[in-house]
Amino acid sequence: MSLDFSSVKLTGNPGPSGWTQIHEFLSENEEKKAKRGRLFAVVSTKLIKEGVDSVVAGRELLSRFHEEYFGNLDSSPFIALKSSLEKVINEFSGQWQEKVEIAAAAVLDNVVYTAAGGGSSVDIFREGSLAKILLSGQKEVVSASGYPKEGDLLVLGTSSFFKAFGEGTLKASLEGPNLEAFAEALAPATHAREDEGSIGAVVIKFSVEAKPEIIDKEPVRLKEEILGKLKERAAFFLKKSVGTIKKIGIKFPERKIYVREEFKEDVTVGSKKTTFTVGFLLLILLLISIGFGIKQKNIKKLKSQYEPKLIQAQQEFDESYGLVNVDKKRSRELFLSSQSKVNELLVGKITDKRLLTLEEKIKETEGVFLGIYNEETELFMDLSLISSGFKGSLLVFSGGNLYVLDRDGGKVARVKTDTKKTEIVAGPEQLKDISQITAYEDNVYGLSADGIYLLTEKKEKIIEKDWEGDISLFAYAGNIYLLNKTNLTITRFPAVEGGFAKGQSWLAPGINLSFAGVISTTIDGSIWLLFEPFKILKLSQGSPQSFKIDEVPGGLTRIDIIYSNEATSGIYLLDKNNKRIITLSKEGSYQALYSSEKIGETVDFVVSEDNKTIILLMGDKLHSIELRHL
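^ that's the sequence the OP posted. Answer follows.
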Protein backbone atom coordinates (compact mmCIF):
# COMPACT_ATOMS: atom_id res chain seq x y z
CA MET A 1 0.00 0.00 0.00
CA SER A 2 1.42 3.38 -0.99
CA LEU A 3 0.78 6.16 1.50
CA ASP A 4 0.17 9.78 0.57
CA PHE A 5 0.75 12.61 3.02
CA SER A 6 -0.24 16.22 3.62
CA SER A 7 0.82 18.78 6.19
CA VAL A 8 -0.20 21.89 8.09
CA LYS A 9 2.09 24.36 9.81
CA LEU A 10 1.77 26.60 12.87
CA THR A 11 4.19 29.36 13.93
CA GLY A 12 4.07 32.46 16.05
CA ASN A 13 5.27 35.85 14.84
CA PRO A 14 8.97 36.62 15.43
CA GLY A 15 9.58 38.70 18.53
CA PRO A 16 11.76 39.06 21.63
CA SER A 17 10.99 35.47 22.60
CA GLY A 18 12.49 34.01 19.44
CA TRP A 19 12.21 33.18 15.76
CA THR A 20 10.68 29.96 14.40
CA GLN A 21 10.29 28.73 10.86
CA ILE A 22 8.70 25.69 9.24
CA HIS A 23 10.54 24.37 6.22
CA GLU A 24 9.27 21.86 3.62
CA PHE A 25 11.37 20.88 0.63
CA LEU A 26 11.40 18.33 -2.20
CA SER A 27 14.40 18.52 -4.52
CA GLU A 28 13.82 18.75 -8.29
CA ASN A 29 16.98 16.70 -8.76
CA GLU A 30 15.78 13.16 -9.42
CA GLU A 31 18.65 11.48 -7.57
CA LYS A 32 18.22 13.65 -4.48
CA LYS A 33 14.46 13.13 -4.62
CA ALA A 34 14.95 9.35 -4.78
CA LYS A 35 17.53 9.17 -1.97
CA ARG A 36 16.39 11.93 0.39
CA GLY A 37 12.60 12.21 -0.09
CA ARG A 38 10.54 15.16 1.13
CA LEU A 39 12.07 17.01 4.05
CA PHE A 40 10.13 18.72 6.85
CA ALA A 41 11.87 20.78 9.54
CA VAL A 42 10.93 23.02 12.44
CA VAL A 43 13.77 25.44 13.26
CA SER A 44 13.77 27.77 16.26
CA THR A 45 16.20 30.07 18.01
CA LYS A 46 16.38 33.30 19.96
CA LEU A 47 16.47 36.36 17.74
CA ILE A 48 19.96 37.57 17.00
CA LYS A 49 18.68 41.01 16.07
CA GLU A 50 15.27 42.42 15.41
CA GLY A 51 13.92 42.37 11.86
CA VAL A 52 15.74 41.38 8.74
CA ASP A 53 19.00 40.31 10.39
CA SER A 54 17.27 37.40 12.09
CA VAL A 55 15.73 36.34 8.78
CA VAL A 56 19.12 36.42 7.06
CA ALA A 57 20.55 34.32 9.89
CA GLY A 58 17.68 31.85 9.50
CA ARG A 59 18.32 31.53 5.78
CA GLU A 60 21.98 30.87 6.53
CA LEU A 61 21.04 28.07 8.93
CA LEU A 62 18.63 26.44 6.46
CA SER A 63 21.17 26.72 3.68
CA ARG A 64 23.72 24.93 5.85
CA PHE A 65 21.16 22.25 6.78
CA HIS A 66 20.44 21.64 3.07
CA GLU A 67 24.14 21.41 2.34
CA GLU A 68 24.60 18.70 4.97
CA TYR A 69 21.47 16.64 4.29
CA PHE A 70 21.42 16.76 0.47
CA GLY A 71 25.18 17.10 -0.07
CA ASN A 72 26.39 13.52 0.43
CA LEU A 73 24.00 10.92 -0.98
CA ASP A 74 26.11 7.90 -0.03
CA SER A 75 24.77 7.56 3.51
CA SER A 76 21.21 6.46 4.36
CA PRO A 77 18.50 9.10 5.04
CA PHE A 78 18.40 7.99 8.69
CA ILE A 79 22.12 8.61 9.25
CA ALA A 80 22.20 11.76 7.08
CA LEU A 81 19.28 13.35 8.95
CA LYS A 82 20.73 12.82 12.42
CA SER A 83 24.23 13.83 11.33
CA SER A 84 22.92 17.01 9.69
CA LEU A 85 21.06 18.06 12.83
CA GLU A 86 24.09 17.44 15.03
CA LYS A 87 26.43 19.49 12.85
CA VAL A 88 24.06 22.39 12.27
CA ILE A 89 22.89 22.67 15.89
CA ASN A 90 26.45 22.56 17.25
CA GLU A 91 27.76 24.98 14.66
CA PHE A 92 25.05 27.64 15.01
CA SER A 93 24.56 27.33 18.75
CA GLY A 94 28.23 28.18 19.15
CA GLN A 95 28.17 30.87 16.49
CA TRP A 96 25.08 32.65 17.81
CA GLN A 97 25.61 31.80 21.49
CA GLU A 98 21.93 30.91 21.62
CA LYS A 99 20.04 27.63 21.84
CA VAL A 100 19.03 26.23 18.45
CA GLU A 101 16.18 23.71 18.19
CA ILE A 102 15.49 21.56 15.14
CA ALA A 103 12.92 18.80 14.70
CA ALA A 104 13.01 17.16 11.28
CA ALA A 105 11.40 14.35 9.32
CA ALA A 106 12.08 12.88 5.90
CA VAL A 107 9.38 10.83 4.14
CA LEU A 108 10.66 8.36 1.58
CA ASP A 109 9.14 5.12 0.18
CA ASN A 110 6.50 4.70 2.92
CA VAL A 111 9.16 5.17 5.63
CA VAL A 112 9.43 8.22 7.86
CA TYR A 113 12.84 9.15 9.34
CA THR A 114 12.81 11.56 12.27
CA ALA A 115 15.39 13.42 14.33
CA ALA A 116 15.19 16.08 17.04
CA GLY A 117 17.74 18.22 18.85
CA GLY A 118 18.09 21.24 21.13
CA GLY A 119 14.98 20.41 23.18
CA SER A 120 12.50 19.80 20.35
CA SER A 121 10.18 16.79 20.25
CA VAL A 122 8.32 14.46 17.89
CA ASP A 123 4.90 12.99 18.79
CA ILE A 124 2.58 10.59 16.97
CA PHE A 125 -1.21 10.55 17.13
CA ARG A 126 -2.57 7.10 16.25
CA GLU A 127 -6.09 5.74 16.68
CA GLY A 128 -7.01 8.35 19.31
CA SER A 129 -3.81 7.99 21.35
CA LEU A 130 -0.95 10.49 21.56
CA ALA A 131 2.56 9.21 22.19
CA LYS A 132 5.99 10.82 22.23
CA ILE A 133 8.51 9.30 19.84
CA LEU A 134 11.46 11.62 20.43
CA LEU A 135 12.32 14.04 23.24
CA SER A 136 15.71 15.66 22.78
CA GLY A 137 17.93 17.23 25.39
CA GLN A 138 19.62 20.60 25.10
CA LYS A 139 22.86 19.15 23.69
CA GLU A 140 21.77 15.86 22.17
CA VAL A 141 20.16 14.73 18.94
CA VAL A 142 17.89 11.69 19.01
CA SER A 143 16.48 9.87 16.00
CA ALA A 144 14.03 7.13 15.00
CA SER A 145 12.40 5.67 11.92
CA GLY A 146 9.32 3.58 11.18
CA TYR A 147 6.41 2.74 8.92
CA PRO A 148 3.45 5.11 9.37
CA LYS A 149 -0.10 3.78 9.15
CA GLU A 150 -3.20 5.10 7.47
CA GLY A 151 -4.54 8.03 9.54
CA ASP A 152 -1.35 8.61 11.56
CA LEU A 153 -0.51 12.20 12.47
CA LEU A 154 3.15 13.03 13.10
CA VAL A 155 3.80 16.20 15.12
CA LEU A 156 7.20 17.94 14.98
CA GLY A 157 7.41 20.82 17.44
CA THR A 158 9.58 23.13 19.49
CA SER A 159 9.88 22.80 23.26
CA SER A 160 7.79 25.99 23.64
CA PHE A 161 5.03 24.47 21.52
CA PHE A 162 4.69 21.34 23.67
CA LYS A 163 4.96 23.46 26.81
CA ALA A 164 2.19 25.81 25.65
CA PHE A 165 -0.21 23.03 24.65
CA GLY A 166 -0.59 20.07 26.96
CA GLU A 167 -1.55 16.57 25.94
CA GLY A 168 -5.30 17.16 26.33
CA THR A 169 -5.33 20.32 24.24
CA LEU A 170 -3.11 18.76 21.61
CA LYS A 171 -5.26 15.62 21.34
CA ALA A 172 -8.42 17.69 21.00
CA SER A 173 -6.91 19.74 18.17
CA LEU A 174 -5.69 16.60 16.35
CA GLU A 175 -9.11 14.95 16.57
CA GLY A 176 -10.58 17.62 14.31
CA PRO A 177 -12.18 16.79 10.95
CA ASN A 178 -9.12 17.89 8.96
CA LEU A 179 -5.60 19.28 9.33
CA GLU A 180 -6.79 22.87 9.07
CA ALA A 181 -8.77 22.34 12.28
CA PHE A 182 -5.46 21.86 14.11
CA ALA A 183 -4.16 25.29 13.07
CA GLU A 184 -7.58 26.88 13.55
CA ALA A 185 -7.79 25.56 17.11
CA LEU A 186 -4.30 26.55 18.25
CA ALA A 187 -3.45 29.68 16.24
CA PRO A 188 -5.43 32.19 18.38
CA ALA A 189 -3.86 30.88 21.59
CA THR A 190 -0.40 30.94 19.96
CA HIS A 191 -0.64 34.58 18.93
CA ALA A 192 -1.97 35.56 22.35
CA ARG A 193 1.15 34.26 24.16
CA GLU A 194 4.20 36.36 25.01
CA ASP A 195 6.52 33.54 23.90
CA GLU A 196 4.82 33.09 20.49
CA GLY A 197 8.09 33.71 18.61
CA SER A 198 9.52 30.41 19.84
CA ILE A 199 6.36 28.35 19.15
CA GLY A 200 6.28 26.24 16.03
CA ALA A 201 4.99 22.88 14.83
CA VAL A 202 4.21 20.95 11.67
CA VAL A 203 1.69 18.10 11.52
CA ILE A 204 2.08 15.47 8.80
CA LYS A 205 -0.95 13.30 8.03
CA PHE A 206 -0.57 9.94 6.28
CA SER A 207 -3.41 8.63 4.15
CA VAL A 208 -4.05 6.23 1.30
CA GLU A 209 -5.64 8.86 -0.89
CA ALA A 210 -5.83 12.58 -0.36
CA LYS A 211 -9.42 13.62 -1.06
CA PRO A 212 -10.30 17.24 -1.74
CA GLU A 213 -12.12 18.86 1.09
CA ILE A 214 -15.60 20.11 0.22
CA ILE A 215 -16.53 23.24 2.04
CA ASP A 216 -20.28 23.51 2.53
CA LYS A 217 -21.21 27.15 2.29
CA GLU A 218 -24.98 26.50 2.52
CA PRO A 219 -25.22 27.09 6.31
CA VAL A 220 -23.97 30.64 5.83
CA ARG A 221 -26.67 31.33 3.26
CA LEU A 222 -29.36 29.73 5.46
CA LYS A 223 -28.21 31.76 8.43
CA GLU A 224 -28.50 34.95 6.39
CA GLU A 225 -32.07 33.96 5.37
CA ILE A 226 -32.98 33.22 9.01
CA LEU A 227 -31.55 36.56 10.12
CA GLY A 228 -33.57 38.34 7.44
CA LYS A 229 -36.80 36.63 8.52
CA LEU A 230 -36.11 37.44 12.18
CA LYS A 231 -35.63 41.10 11.29
CA GLU A 232 -38.94 41.06 9.40
CA ARG A 233 -40.70 39.42 12.39
CA ALA A 234 -39.11 41.94 14.76
CA ALA A 235 -40.37 44.86 12.67
CA PHE A 236 -43.84 43.27 12.51
CA PHE A 237 -44.04 42.69 16.29
CA LEU A 238 -42.69 46.17 16.98
CA LYS A 239 -45.35 47.73 14.76
CA LYS A 240 -48.10 45.61 16.31
CA SER A 241 -46.90 46.27 19.85
CA VAL A 242 -46.77 50.02 19.36
CA GLY A 243 -50.25 49.93 17.80
CA THR A 244 -51.63 47.89 20.68
CA ILE A 245 -50.11 50.20 23.27
CA LYS A 246 -51.57 53.24 21.54
CA LYS A 247 -55.00 51.62 21.49
CA ILE A 248 -54.68 50.74 25.15
CA GLY A 249 -53.60 54.29 25.89
CA ILE A 250 -56.73 55.64 24.23
CA LYS A 251 -59.09 53.18 25.84
CA PHE A 252 -57.59 53.52 29.33
CA PRO A 253 -56.59 56.91 30.66
CA GLU A 254 -53.13 57.11 32.10
CA ARG A 255 -54.50 57.14 35.63
CA LYS A 256 -58.07 56.88 36.92
CA ILE A 257 -59.02 56.71 40.61
CA TYR A 258 -62.36 55.41 41.86
CA VAL A 259 -63.36 56.26 45.40
CA ARG A 260 -65.21 53.56 47.28
CA GLU A 261 -66.36 53.32 50.80
CA GLU A 262 -62.98 52.19 51.92
CA PHE A 263 -61.36 55.21 50.15
CA LYS A 264 -58.87 52.86 48.33
CA GLU A 265 -57.29 53.54 44.91
CA ASP A 266 -58.09 51.07 42.07
CA VAL A 267 -54.83 50.44 40.16
CA THR A 268 -56.02 47.56 37.95
CA VAL A 269 -55.77 49.54 34.70
CA GLY A 270 -52.30 50.88 35.53
CA SER A 271 -51.07 47.34 36.22
CA LYS A 272 -52.30 46.10 32.86
CA LYS A 273 -50.52 48.93 31.06
CA THR A 274 -47.28 48.25 32.94
CA THR A 275 -47.51 44.57 32.00
CA PHE A 276 -47.81 45.42 28.30
CA THR A 277 -44.87 47.86 28.52
CA VAL A 278 -42.61 45.35 30.25
CA GLY A 279 -43.60 42.66 27.75
CA PHE A 280 -42.83 44.94 24.85
CA LEU A 281 -39.40 45.86 26.25
CA LEU A 282 -38.60 42.20 26.87
CA LEU A 283 -39.56 41.39 23.29
CA ILE A 284 -37.22 44.11 21.98
CA LEU A 285 -34.38 42.86 24.20
CA LEU A 286 -35.00 39.29 23.06
CA LEU A 287 -34.85 40.30 19.40
CA ILE A 288 -31.67 42.34 19.96
CA SER A 289 -30.12 39.40 21.79
CA ILE A 290 -31.02 37.01 18.97
CA GLY A 291 -29.64 39.40 16.38
CA PHE A 292 -26.42 39.92 18.35
CA GLY A 293 -26.01 36.18 18.84
CA ILE A 294 -26.47 35.48 15.15
CA LYS A 295 -24.01 38.25 14.30
CA GLN A 296 -21.41 36.78 16.66
CA LYS A 297 -21.91 33.33 15.16
CA ASN A 298 -21.51 34.78 11.68
CA ILE A 299 -18.29 36.50 12.73
CA LYS A 300 -17.00 33.27 14.22
CA LYS A 301 -18.04 31.35 11.12
CA LEU A 302 -16.35 33.90 8.86
CA LYS A 303 -13.18 33.75 10.95
CA SER A 304 -13.14 29.96 10.79
CA GLN A 305 -13.36 30.22 7.00
CA TYR A 306 -10.57 32.74 6.42
CA GLU A 307 -8.20 32.04 9.32
CA PRO A 308 -6.72 28.78 7.89
CA LYS A 309 -5.93 30.61 4.65
CA LEU A 310 -4.38 33.51 6.59
CA ILE A 311 -2.26 31.12 8.65
CA GLN A 312 -1.13 29.31 5.51
CA ALA A 313 -0.27 32.63 3.84
CA GLN A 314 1.86 33.62 6.84
CA GLN A 315 3.62 30.25 6.84
CA GLU A 316 4.35 30.44 3.11
CA PHE A 317 5.74 33.94 3.54
CA ASP A 318 8.00 32.81 6.40
CA GLU A 319 9.18 29.73 4.50
CA SER A 320 9.90 31.73 1.37
CA TYR A 321 12.41 33.78 3.39
CA GLY A 322 14.28 30.66 4.37
CA LEU A 323 14.61 29.53 0.75
CA VAL A 324 15.81 32.78 -0.84
CA ASN A 325 19.43 31.61 -0.87
CA VAL A 326 18.65 27.89 -1.11
CA ASP A 327 16.05 27.61 -3.87
CA LYS A 328 15.09 30.96 -5.44
CA LYS A 329 12.48 29.42 -7.70
CA ARG A 330 10.64 27.70 -4.84
CA SER A 331 11.03 30.82 -2.69
CA ARG A 332 9.37 32.91 -5.38
CA GLU A 333 6.55 30.35 -5.77
CA LEU A 334 5.83 30.44 -2.02
CA PHE A 335 5.92 34.23 -1.95
CA LEU A 336 3.51 34.50 -4.89
CA SER A 337 1.18 31.95 -3.29
CA SER A 338 1.22 33.91 -0.02
CA GLN A 339 0.62 37.17 -1.89
CA SER A 340 -2.29 35.62 -3.81
CA LYS A 341 -3.97 34.39 -0.61
CA VAL A 342 -3.56 37.79 1.04
CA ASN A 343 -5.11 39.54 -1.99
CA GLU A 344 -8.06 37.11 -1.96
CA LEU A 345 -8.70 37.87 1.70
CA LEU A 346 -8.41 41.62 1.12
CA VAL A 347 -10.91 41.43 -1.76
CA GLY A 348 -13.24 39.68 0.70
CA LYS A 349 -12.94 42.77 2.92
CA ILE A 350 -11.29 40.86 5.79
CA THR A 351 -9.93 43.38 8.30
CA ASP A 352 -7.95 41.09 10.60
CA LYS A 353 -4.94 42.95 12.03
CA ARG A 354 -2.66 40.00 11.20
CA LEU A 355 -3.74 40.18 7.56
CA LEU A 356 -2.96 43.89 7.32
CA THR A 357 0.45 43.34 8.91
CA LEU A 358 1.26 40.54 6.47
CA GLU A 359 0.10 42.69 3.53
CA GLU A 360 2.55 45.40 4.61
CA LYS A 361 5.41 42.89 4.91
CA ILE A 362 4.69 41.56 1.42
CA LYS A 363 4.75 45.05 -0.05
CA GLU A 364 8.02 45.87 1.71
CA THR A 365 9.79 42.69 0.57
CA GLU A 366 8.41 42.34 -2.97
CA GLY A 367 11.78 43.38 -4.37
CA VAL A 368 13.60 40.71 -2.38
CA PHE A 369 11.43 37.85 -3.63
CA LEU A 370 10.25 38.95 -7.07
CA GLY A 371 13.09 41.29 -7.90
CA ILE A 372 10.64 44.08 -8.76
CA TYR A 373 12.04 47.52 -8.02
CA ASN A 374 9.97 50.62 -8.70
CA GLU A 375 12.70 53.24 -8.88
CA GLU A 376 12.91 56.95 -9.60
CA THR A 377 15.79 57.67 -11.98
CA GLU A 378 18.49 60.12 -10.93
CA LEU A 379 20.15 62.67 -13.20
CA PHE A 380 23.62 61.34 -14.03
CA MET A 381 24.71 64.13 -16.39
CA ASP A 382 23.29 67.02 -18.40
CA LEU A 383 24.93 66.54 -21.83
CA SER A 384 24.06 70.07 -22.92
CA LEU A 385 26.75 71.26 -20.52
CA ILE A 386 29.37 69.44 -22.63
CA SER A 387 28.36 71.20 -25.80
CA SER A 388 25.44 73.49 -26.57
CA GLY A 389 22.61 71.62 -28.25
CA PHE A 390 24.24 68.20 -27.70
CA LYS A 391 21.67 65.43 -28.14
CA GLY A 392 22.67 61.78 -27.79
CA SER A 393 21.48 59.09 -30.20
CA LEU A 394 23.78 56.16 -29.28
CA LEU A 395 25.55 55.02 -26.11
CA VAL A 396 28.64 52.76 -25.93
CA PHE A 397 30.36 51.59 -22.71
CA SER A 398 33.88 50.18 -22.45
CA GLY A 399 36.66 50.30 -19.86
CA GLY A 400 34.78 52.64 -17.55
CA ASN A 401 34.17 55.09 -20.39
CA LEU A 402 30.80 56.18 -21.73
CA TYR A 403 30.80 57.24 -25.37
CA VAL A 404 27.80 59.29 -26.48
CA LEU A 405 27.16 59.90 -30.18
CA ASP A 406 25.35 63.06 -31.24
CA ARG A 407 24.56 62.02 -34.81
CA ASP A 408 22.91 65.28 -35.86
CA GLY A 409 25.58 67.45 -34.26
CA GLY A 410 28.45 65.30 -35.54
CA LYS A 411 30.12 64.79 -32.15
CA VAL A 412 31.23 61.96 -29.84
CA ALA A 413 31.62 62.77 -26.14
CA ARG A 414 33.50 60.62 -23.63
CA VAL A 415 32.35 60.52 -19.98
CA LYS A 416 34.43 58.88 -17.24
CA THR A 417 31.89 57.03 -15.10
CA ASP A 418 33.93 57.31 -11.89
CA THR A 419 34.78 61.04 -12.06
CA LYS A 420 32.19 62.25 -14.64
CA LYS A 421 34.99 64.03 -16.42
CA THR A 422 33.92 64.80 -20.01
CA GLU A 423 35.55 65.66 -23.32
CA ILE A 424 34.68 65.73 -27.01
CA VAL A 425 36.77 62.98 -28.67
CA ALA A 426 35.48 63.37 -32.24
CA GLY A 427 33.89 66.23 -34.11
CA PRO A 428 32.10 66.83 -37.43
CA GLU A 429 35.31 66.44 -39.43
CA GLN A 430 36.08 62.97 -38.00
CA LEU A 431 32.45 61.83 -38.21
CA LYS A 432 31.92 62.85 -41.82
CA ASP A 433 30.48 59.85 -43.71
CA ILE A 434 30.50 57.75 -40.47
CA SER A 435 27.25 55.76 -40.10
CA GLN A 436 28.01 53.80 -36.90
CA ILE A 437 30.49 53.90 -34.04
CA THR A 438 31.77 51.41 -31.47
CA ALA A 439 34.50 51.61 -28.82
CA TYR A 440 36.99 49.54 -26.90
CA GLU A 441 38.75 51.03 -23.88
CA ASP A 442 40.06 54.46 -25.03
CA ASN A 443 39.60 53.89 -28.77
CA VAL A 444 36.57 54.88 -30.83
CA TYR A 445 35.93 53.25 -34.20
CA GLY A 446 33.63 54.38 -37.01
CA LEU A 447 32.01 52.53 -39.92
CA SER A 448 32.21 54.40 -43.25
CA ALA A 449 31.29 53.59 -46.83
CA ASP A 450 34.89 52.64 -47.62
CA GLY A 451 36.02 50.90 -44.43
CA ILE A 452 36.51 51.22 -40.65
CA TYR A 453 38.33 54.20 -39.10
CA LEU A 454 39.98 54.91 -35.77
CA LEU A 455 38.47 58.25 -34.82
CA THR A 456 41.32 60.41 -33.59
CA GLU A 457 42.25 63.94 -34.51
CA LYS A 458 43.41 62.71 -37.92
CA LYS A 459 40.80 59.92 -38.56
CA GLU A 460 42.94 56.89 -39.42
CA LYS A 461 41.61 54.09 -41.63
CA ILE A 462 42.38 50.71 -40.03
CA ILE A 463 40.34 48.21 -42.10
CA GLU A 464 39.71 48.36 -45.83
CA LYS A 465 36.20 47.57 -46.98
CA ASP A 466 35.70 44.16 -48.60
CA TRP A 467 32.00 43.67 -47.87
CA GLU A 468 28.58 44.74 -49.12
CA GLY A 469 25.24 44.82 -47.36
CA ASP A 470 23.54 45.94 -44.16
CA ILE A 471 26.25 46.00 -41.45
CA SER A 472 26.25 46.18 -37.64
CA LEU A 473 29.57 47.14 -36.01
CA PHE A 474 30.75 46.21 -32.50
CA ALA A 475 33.99 45.59 -30.60
CA TYR A 476 35.05 43.09 -27.94
CA ALA A 477 38.40 42.26 -26.29
CA GLY A 478 40.21 44.56 -28.69
CA ASN A 479 38.77 42.84 -31.76
CA ILE A 480 36.25 44.26 -34.22
CA TYR A 481 33.17 42.36 -35.41
CA LEU A 482 30.87 42.95 -38.38
CA LEU A 483 27.45 41.37 -38.57
CA ASN A 484 26.28 41.37 -42.18
CA LYS A 485 22.49 41.05 -42.26
CA THR A 486 22.49 40.84 -46.06
CA ASN A 487 25.14 38.14 -46.56
CA LEU A 488 24.24 36.36 -43.28
CA THR A 489 27.81 36.38 -41.98
CA ILE A 490 29.68 37.48 -38.85
CA THR A 491 33.29 38.54 -39.51
CA ARG A 492 35.93 38.96 -36.83
CA PHE A 493 38.98 41.21 -37.31
CA PRO A 494 41.58 40.16 -34.69
CA ALA A 495 43.69 42.89 -33.10
CA VAL A 496 47.38 42.62 -33.93
CA GLU A 497 50.33 44.89 -33.26
CA GLY A 498 49.86 48.06 -35.23
CA GLY A 499 46.31 47.35 -36.38
CA PHE A 500 44.01 44.47 -37.30
CA ALA A 501 44.47 41.20 -39.19
CA LYS A 502 42.37 40.14 -42.13
CA GLY A 503 38.76 39.34 -41.38
CA GLN A 504 37.80 35.77 -40.48
CA SER A 505 34.41 34.10 -40.40
CA TRP A 506 33.29 33.86 -36.79
CA LEU A 507 30.43 31.44 -37.45
CA ALA A 508 31.31 27.75 -37.18
CA PRO A 509 31.46 25.73 -40.43
CA GLY A 510 28.06 24.62 -41.65
CA ILE A 511 26.12 27.15 -39.53
CA ASN A 512 23.53 28.98 -41.62
CA LEU A 513 21.44 31.65 -39.92
CA SER A 514 18.89 34.23 -40.91
CA PHE A 515 19.37 37.71 -39.47
CA ALA A 516 16.05 39.02 -40.77
CA GLY A 517 14.28 40.97 -38.04
CA VAL A 518 17.40 41.58 -35.87
CA ILE A 519 16.84 44.91 -34.09
CA SER A 520 19.62 44.85 -31.47
CA THR A 521 22.96 43.11 -30.88
CA THR A 522 25.40 42.90 -27.98
CA ILE A 523 28.55 40.93 -27.21
CA ASP A 524 30.10 39.58 -24.02
CA GLY A 525 32.11 36.70 -25.44
CA SER A 526 28.87 35.31 -26.79
CA ILE A 527 27.00 37.30 -29.42
CA TRP A 528 23.36 38.01 -28.59
CA LEU A 529 20.86 38.82 -31.32
CA LEU A 530 17.45 40.29 -30.55
CA PHE A 531 14.71 39.63 -33.13
CA GLU A 532 11.33 41.33 -33.20
CA PRO A 533 9.31 41.27 -31.03
CA PHE A 534 11.27 39.49 -28.27
CA LYS A 535 13.09 36.40 -29.61
CA ILE A 536 16.73 36.08 -28.46
CA LEU A 537 19.41 34.04 -30.20
CA LYS A 538 22.60 33.28 -28.29
CA LEU A 539 25.72 32.41 -30.30
CA SER A 540 28.83 30.99 -28.61
CA GLN A 541 31.99 29.87 -30.41
CA GLY A 542 30.19 30.46 -33.67
CA SER A 543 27.18 28.20 -32.97
CA PRO A 544 23.61 28.72 -31.65
CA GLN A 545 23.12 27.82 -28.00
CA SER A 546 20.01 26.75 -26.16
CA PHE A 547 18.43 29.77 -24.50
CA LYS A 548 14.92 29.93 -23.06
CA ILE A 549 13.50 32.83 -21.08
CA ASP A 550 11.83 31.90 -17.79
CA GLU A 551 8.49 33.42 -16.92
CA VAL A 552 8.82 37.18 -16.33
CA PRO A 553 6.42 39.10 -14.05
CA GLY A 554 3.88 40.76 -16.29
CA GLY A 555 4.97 38.65 -19.27
CA LEU A 556 6.84 39.79 -22.39
CA THR A 557 5.31 41.28 -25.52
CA ARG A 558 8.27 43.23 -26.91
CA ILE A 559 11.92 44.02 -26.20
CA ASP A 560 13.57 47.08 -27.78
CA ILE A 561 17.25 46.71 -26.84
CA ILE A 562 19.39 43.87 -25.46
CA TYR A 563 22.59 44.66 -23.53
CA SER A 564 25.43 42.70 -21.94
CA ASN A 565 29.21 42.95 -21.58
CA GLU A 566 32.07 40.80 -20.35
CA ALA A 567 31.70 42.14 -16.79
CA THR A 568 27.95 41.61 -16.35
CA SER A 569 26.53 38.51 -14.70
CA GLY A 570 23.35 38.70 -16.76
CA ILE A 571 21.72 40.24 -19.81
CA TYR A 572 19.50 43.33 -19.66
CA LEU A 573 16.38 43.94 -21.76
CA LEU A 574 14.74 47.31 -22.40
CA ASP A 575 10.93 47.26 -22.64
CA LYS A 576 10.06 50.88 -23.46
CA ASN A 577 6.33 50.30 -23.82
CA ASN A 578 6.00 48.98 -20.26
CA LYS A 579 8.69 51.37 -18.94
CA ARG A 580 10.92 48.68 -17.46
CA ILE A 581 14.31 47.00 -17.74
CA ILE A 582 14.43 43.25 -17.12
CA THR A 583 17.55 41.33 -16.17
CA LEU A 584 18.01 37.62 -16.85
CA SER A 585 20.84 35.25 -16.07
CA LYS A 586 22.85 34.20 -19.11
CA GLU A 587 20.96 30.89 -18.94
CA GLY A 588 17.60 32.68 -19.18
CA SER A 589 16.46 32.68 -15.54
CA TYR A 590 14.56 35.78 -14.45
CA GLN A 591 16.51 37.86 -11.92
CA ALA A 592 15.02 41.32 -11.50
CA LEU A 593 12.82 44.01 -12.99
CA TYR A 594 13.35 47.78 -12.72
CA SER A 595 10.36 49.98 -13.42
CA SER A 596 10.26 53.76 -13.85
CA GLU A 597 8.26 56.30 -15.87
CA LYS A 598 11.50 57.72 -17.29
CA ILE A 599 12.47 54.38 -18.84
CA GLY A 600 9.81 54.99 -21.48
CA GLU A 601 11.90 57.95 -22.76
CA THR A 602 15.12 55.90 -23.12
CA VAL A 603 16.98 56.11 -26.43
CA ASP A 604 19.78 53.69 -25.44
CA PHE A 605 21.26 52.26 -22.24
CA VAL A 606 24.30 50.47 -20.79
CA VAL A 607 25.03 48.70 -17.51
CA SER A 608 27.99 48.85 -15.14
CA GLU A 609 27.64 46.11 -12.54
CA ASP A 610 30.92 47.22 -10.95
CA ASN A 611 29.26 50.54 -10.15
CA LYS A 612 25.85 48.87 -9.65
CA THR A 613 24.31 51.29 -12.12
CA ILE A 614 22.07 51.29 -15.18
CA ILE A 615 22.78 54.40 -17.29
CA LEU A 616 19.98 55.61 -19.55
CA LEU A 617 20.39 57.97 -22.50
CA MET A 618 17.46 60.37 -22.87
CA GLY A 619 18.41 62.85 -25.55
CA ASP A 620 20.40 65.63 -23.90
CA LYS A 621 20.58 63.91 -20.51
CA LEU A 622 21.95 60.75 -18.91
CA HIS A 623 19.92 59.25 -16.06
CA SER A 624 20.85 56.38 -13.75
CA ILE A 625 19.14 53.64 -11.74
CA GLU A 626 20.85 51.82 -8.89
CA LEU A 627 21.14 48.04 -9.32
CA ARG A 628 19.69 46.51 -6.16
CA HIS A 629 19.41 42.83 -7.06
CA LEU A 630 23.16 42.15 -7.04
